[in-house]
Write a structure and sequence with these properties.
Layout lengths: L2 E11 L9 H9 L15 E6 L4 E6 L14 E3 L2 E3 L39 H5 L5 E11 L6 H13 L1 H14 L1
Antiparallel strand pairs: 1-6, 2-3, 4-5
Helix pairs in contact: 3-4
Bound molecules: iron/sulfur cluster (SF4) (2 copies).
């Protein structure tokens, strides 16, 4: 397979500094609203702050890949004496929880590092975090060319899992007839 140069974008999370202000969720949902900044709904954010006040837990987690199946087991972590809930560190939109799904359509949400044209200097959540919890970094790596599923395919997969293939085909046919 051919090698290509790829810019790897990462956000380092210094979770100990997070105070749960949720500014990252607010700006992410506003930036991804259609049209941009037309609405704010943290349930649509591609970053969620897992919060447990009594345990002093504030953990920012970014939305990752959609997965159609629940995992076979769950993990619990204890770090510095704090016990984190099952699924706390999981980035997937999956059938067993509502996290990282659009509240209206149920479609999975995924962090896209605020891709935009022209490109932003840094992602919006990084800019909005005043406690330096989120630290943006870029590096260039040589990687093998891959055929990744694009956002449309991922969305279609999620719809097929939720409603079944035939219902999706029927809906598309109905829309085609109307247009
Ligand atoms: S903006 Fe920063 S401090 Fe506030 S919740 Fe998000 S990560 Fe935590
Ligand atoms: S990088 Fe952009 S898309 Fe990803 S969580 Fe932050 S604001 Fe949202």
């Amino acid at each position: 397979m051919a090698k290509i140069k790829k810019t790897i974008k990462t956000i380092k999370v210094d979770a100990d500094k997070c105070n749960g202000c949720r500014a990252c969720e607010v700006i992410c949902s506003a930036f991804h609203a259609e049209p941009k900044y037309s609405s704010i709904n943290p349930a649509r954010a591609r970053i969620q702050v897992i919060t447990h006040r009594l345990k002093d837990i504030w953990l920012p987690v970014f939305a990752g890949e959609y997965t159609p199946a629940e995992c076979m087991g769950r993990d619990k972590y204890i770090i510095d004496g704090k016990e984190y809930e099952e699924c706390s560190f999981c980035r997937a939109a999956c059938p067993s929880r509502e996290m990282f799904k659009d509240p209206d359509s149920g479609l999975p949400l995924k962090c896209d590092m605020c891709e935009s044209d022209p490109p932003l200097e840094k992602p919006k959540c990084v800019e909005a975090c005043l406690n330096d919890v989120l630290i943006y970094q870029e590096r260039v790596e040589e990687v093998e060319e891959e055929c990744a599923l694009d956002d449309i395919q991922t969305g279609l997969e999620a719809l097929v899992d939720k409603h079944g293939f035939q219902k999706l085909i029927d809906a598309v046919a109905l829309m085609a007839n109307r247009s």
